[in-house]
Amino acid sequence: MESDKRWSLQWSKSNWALTRTDILVFEGFALPEVALVIEIFHKANALIASLPESPPPYEVTLLSAAGGRVASSSSVLVWTEHLDCRRRKDDKRLVFIAGGSGARDACKEQRMVEWLSRQHSSSELIQPIAEGRCVLEAAGLSTTEPSSCGDTSVRETNTSLTQPLPHYESSNKTLAQVSPS
Question: Is the pLDDT of residue 2 over 60?
Answer without folding.
Answer: no
